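$ fold --in a.seq
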Amino acid sequence: MAQRITTWLQAQISRIASVRNVTLDPGGALVASTWTSGVVHIHLLDELPKTRLLKRVMQDNTRVGIGTLFLINARCVPADGSVTAPDEALLGLHALYRDRLYSFSQSTGGAPRIGQIHFRAFNTRGDLREVWYGPDVAVRNLPCYRVWVSHPLSLKGNWMVANFGSEAFWKDADYTIGREAFRRERQRSGDGGTQYTTWSQPGWEPGGAQGYQTPADPPPARESDLDRSYSVMGLSRGASGEEVKTAFRRLAREVHPDVSTLPKAEAEMRFKILLDAYNKIKVANGW
């Protein structure tokens, strides 16, 4: 599959305004040359690599000022919504590209797709991550820059890398609110958050970046801001003011940074989402 996607990706990158030409080297990597004399090597990985291989490529390229971009086959990445301890190589790729990794896939008869995946800290020890899939990447940019990687230690160093220049989707407020609502819906349905499931932002293609499907239906594609706010609170429309206040107090005891057992950054984010949902409900009802 990598060969088919390589041809497709070569055509996509060649359309970027800053790119002068794109060729295929004997090792199978795409070599993009920019109009400012920069060079980027793009590697499509069909299997999970050893971190020592990633480091060797980074060392060789960085030494001569070449940026590196790795894309991993989607089947090598845990499913959207899963909680897992990712392989060291996946953590390394995630660290290289500003808290995301890039994947590629192609369904039968479908067009190739480039996905972006974020690992969010899930526990205080830091060994577990919740897997978040973002929207498919539109190949329009190819910025090259240096990044310092401190973890995993096997990939520690100051490296020259490139990415597709897309925004940090996991920091988008609407995305995070919708994601929190989806998590609560899963808990309410009784799966405990352990089943591999897929959530996608309304307006994005269902199935996330890679189109994984699950026995559970995704949330409504056109759910409104207010509906999502009620979902975050674990309530349905029509809940009384007292029910909303009670739900807010109960959930605040779970996620407030001063009392929560969650990692501080996780607790701050969840409390911000909860407070935003609470305020939207109050404004909508004139309380």
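$ fold --in b.seq
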Amino acid sequence: MKKNSVRPADSEIERIVNTYADSLYRMCMVSLCNRFDAEDAVSETIMRFIRYSPVFRDKEHEKAWLIRVAVNICADIGRRRSKCIVAQPDILIDTLTKEENLELKHILESLDKKYREVIVLHYIEGYSSKEIAHIFKTSDAAIRKRLQYAREKLKQLLM
């Protein structure tokens, strides 16, 4: 990825926001458990895109860069807080608003952060374990194991 010294055009910024804002917000909500922090993280991610004006190889590289930046910002916000504030069920993962998804919101809240993140990225956002491993800079095997543990925990919670 090259850094472009010219600020992206407004149309490019608008395209990035329209294409990725919802996905980034869901990821940040899962990570931070707080609507306001998630909104701040998405805003900061977009600001970094504007500030650094990166040039991407393709759309996948663009999406991976944005998610990686958002994950790092969420980690920074998490470090600033002494512990994760447990969010109210109605604001966690705002995209799950249908009545049948309320139970899913409660279940996702009860998972550890590292399990919530891989579950959302894999099952909701559609990433492969290899892609998730690249995002979190870990091995594919570690992500597959996390997914396995997350599924086991979900199974226990659903029984």
